[in-house]
């Protein structure tokens, strides 16, 4: 035996307690007595509006849509470019679902009201297309389509997420390993351009360049007023299998990949690839992988099958229910399809635990669970500047899009630098397209024939990091700004992408290292967005934006770029 003494464990300094810590500790009082009741009233009013809309014929909705589009065009025509600020929607900054501050609206701007654009215009069962306006949210569309045994090909989990946000930004769901991101399921886009023209963009018409440039552009190329989106047939239930896995983070990542990506490369074989996939990492050594298949009511009702009516208000939060597989072992249950789609809504994944520390307890779920979730917009509206900044510095909400073969590296990085658990894993394809949009697969990926990849798409994973870092939970110092900056550099080095709803520390140079701006900037010039709509970097940038800063940046960008207009990309 060696006589050498074991080195002492490192001593970590403690973070100084601030007033904002106490405000957050007792914020649940405000949430219970103000945010939850008003959220309930808000959701109910929206529901009544949706029902009123659904009672109208599709023809009447389309006529109202056309009138509303004319109003938008008229409003844009009233703008004096020499006097008015840049164009943005009239939605209050706190209404946006996302963590980043919508500080660009603090600068002088020219508002265009799109609040009327919240109708489902058509469900075409022959073309398998849903035509919807941008403020239609996931709860609204699933309430209409699921009873018809139909669904959007990619239906994001949270009720409040809107079609416009998912197209102009990004959206992912458990079927994205088959269909790609939400924007990949779009068939056509109706857009009002800066000069007032109303155009319909598809992947193979004269506006194909605009069609490919709009995703991730954050509404900075034009005003989206409707979209046609792919529908798929579904059944009444989802047969969901929960499989616990143990090992180190690399081994958990491999088990996750094996849950949906055949090692023989037969990725397009439906007999080998589940229809829904999701993974959750609960610690550096434990995770649960979930795979689902649509199932008929007849199958679900067969003797011996377990049905979990997860939509009931008192049910355990989904991430905690899935975690029970670590003790009970692999199990299977049938969940009503719409309940499955919105399984993370009530608890806002696991962020609900921070908002209401006792919100997952049975007594609360039984008595007040029907009020959940709190409206994200109301949570933001009741935040002070100090609380908002505190969240930015001591809390992480990031969606990291990384190649499937680098998920293990990403998990190790997040554990080492942030130590945030649980972690959400959701696979998705990034397609090889005839043009290069803002996000794109690794050049030459198809030559490596890696697990999950095909000749036409590279398999990525959304690594969802949402919670308080371990250091903060232990009362230790944590530099959220620097950690975010280093994480973004890691993504750039590993051909990853950061969801733009999140807080970012990217400089403009690094922003365009992460995202490809070629097609985007061509469309900015061609469709006269420069000088009318804010550049996507400045819209995503952290911190307050002054009118002078934005206008000077736009002018500088315009002077740097060639005045020549590129022809639209051809398929």
From TrEMBL:
Chief place of localization: membrane
Q: Which InterPro entries match?
A: Diminuto-like, FAD-bd_PCMH, FAD-bd_PCMH-like_sf, FAD-bd_PCMH_sub2, Oxid_FAD_bind_N
The segments labelled Disordered in the record are: 542-571
**EC number from the UniProt entry:** 1.3.1.72
One Pfam family, short name please? FAD_binding_4
Domain (FAD-binding PCMH-type) ranges? 51-234
| GO terms under biological process | steroid metabolic process
Where does the protein end up?
Answer: Membrane
Q: Which GO terms describe its cellular component?
A: cytoplasm; membrane
Keywords for this protein: Membrane, Transmembrane, Transmembrane helix
Query: In what ranges is there compositional bias, type Basic and acidic residues?
Result: 546-556
Stretches with biased composition (Acidic residues):
557-571
What Gene Ontology molecular-function terms does this entry list? Answer: Delta24-sterol reductase activity; FAD binding; oxidoreductase activity, acting on the CH-CH group of donors, NAD or NADP as acceptor
Q: Which domain of life is it from?
A: Eukaryota
Q: How does it sit in the membrane?
A: Single-pass membrane protein
Bilayer-crossing regions = 28-49
| Protein's UniProt name | Delta(24)-sterol reductase
Phylogenetic classification of the source organism: Eukaryota, Viridiplantae, Streptophyta, Embryophyta, Tracheophyta
